[in-house]
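Weekly puzzle thread! Below is a chain. First person to post its structure in C-alpha cell form gets bragging rights.
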Amino acid sequence: CITNATSPDSCACPVRSIINAESHICECLAGHGGDATNANIGCSVCGTTAFKPNVGNTQCTSCPAGSSIADGDTDATSSDSCVCGANAEMNTEAGRCECSAGYGGDATNSFVGCSPCGSSSFKDTVANMACTPCP
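Winning reply:
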C-alpha cells in the first residue's frame, strides 16, 4: 500500500496476482499457483504439466499422467489444455494417457512412449501394453 493509505484501492498486489474486491486479499491469477499473501511463496506460472482454472491462493492441478499442456503454454486455466503425446489418447475414466490401437508401450512414461507395432505384431485396444505377436 502507499503511505497513509485509507482504502484497499491504494494497495498493490505482487506480480501475477490481483486483489479480491470482497476480501481485500491479494490472490494468484488463474493459471498461476501459490500464495500472494506470502512474499516467500508468491504466485508462479503452473508450468507445462499443470493448470489452475480460478483466481485464488491455491496450488495448480497436475495434468493426468502422460499428458502436458498443449503448445507448451505455462499458464493454462483448463484441464482441456492437457493433451497426450504422439500415438496416445486420453482415457478419461482411468485419468491417464494410453497408447492408441496399433501402438505399444506406456504413454505415461516419457522414456518408453508409444511405438508402432511392427509388421509381425498388433494391438487392437487403447492401453499401455506391448503389441501382441501375430499368430
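Puzzle host: Confirmed. Bonus trivia for everyone else. The chain is about 0% helix and 35% strand.
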